[in-house]
Design goal:
By secondary structure, this protein is an alpha+beta fold. It is about 25% helix and about 20% strand.
């Protein structure tokens, strides 16, 4: 069973509103900021009105405004649009996705690199990831101290070296980066995965050159037949 957001984990800092979320600095070991919210409105109705689908469907404002929904559904839509507007005002590029299912890594080899694997996001320049799950299963987090980089596990490293076809040299390091193997993690036996929760807006550290803190490790939740689609804001 997933744990709620840890209260005793120094890498997560709670903030009181959007202004603090956008201006706070990720440093001194803090690699995740969260604005915890209990949102009004019926996001489930919005998802139901969107109807059946496949894969990841990006939702645009005209489509949302055209949905025939109740007052509670309209309230949810206003929040979805307001959150995107806030992020765009600060030069971010949010996308609102209705996720019916994610593509799987069909040839994972020693390390699966799809979003169901614990991973860190990365960028060549300074950047953060912003996340909010409004409906469906929430994103999941893993404490850095309870994670092991997949290529650092001896058995996995041996398999990756076989796949690389060479020695453990600088070329192997590049091989790991090119295939994103170095961004994926395994939970240690004592690890306790936690939920990002519904309605909470997160800003998390990613792997970029010179980042002063370790990246926030997270994954998408497993999706099983019969589960409702996820309604996810990501930037």
């Amino acid at each position: 069973m997933l744990k709620p957001i840890p209260t005793d984990y120094p890498r997560i800092r709670r903030v009181s509103g959007f202004q603090e979320l956008i201006t706070a600095t990720l440093n001194n070991g803090v690699n995740a900021l969260v604005w915890e919210r209990s949102l009004p409105g019926d996001f489930g109705e919005v998802v139901n009105r969107l109807g059946a689908g496949e894969g990841i469907v990006t939702l645009e404002e005209p489509q949302l405004l055209a949905l025939p929904v109740s007052e509670a559904g309209r309230q949810a839509i206003e929040i979805l649009l307001a959150d995107q507007h806030l992020l765009r005002e600060h030069n971010l590029a949010p996308a609102l996705n209705c996720i019916h299912n994610y593509p799987r890594d069909e040839q994972p080899g020693p390390v699966s690199t799809d979003v169901f694997s614990f991973h860190a996001d990365s960028a060549p320049i300074k950047a953060d990831t912003w996340l909010c799950t409004y409906h469906g299963a929430s994103s999941e987090g893993l404490r850095n101290e309870e994670a092991q980089r997949r290529p650092d596990h001896p058995a996995t490293r041996r398999e990756l070296l076989k796949l690389y076809g060479g020695n453990d040299d600088s070329g192997f390091c590049e091989f790991l980066k090119e295939n994103c193997y170095d961004l994926h993690y395994a939970a240690r036996p004592e690890a306790q995965t936690f939920s990002f929760g519904l309605g909470n807006l997160w800003r998390i550290a990613i792997d970029w050159p010179g980042c002063p803190v370790p990246p926030c490790i997270h994954r998408a939740p497993q999706q099983w037949p019969g589960q409702p689609p996820r309604l996810l804001l990501i930037s």
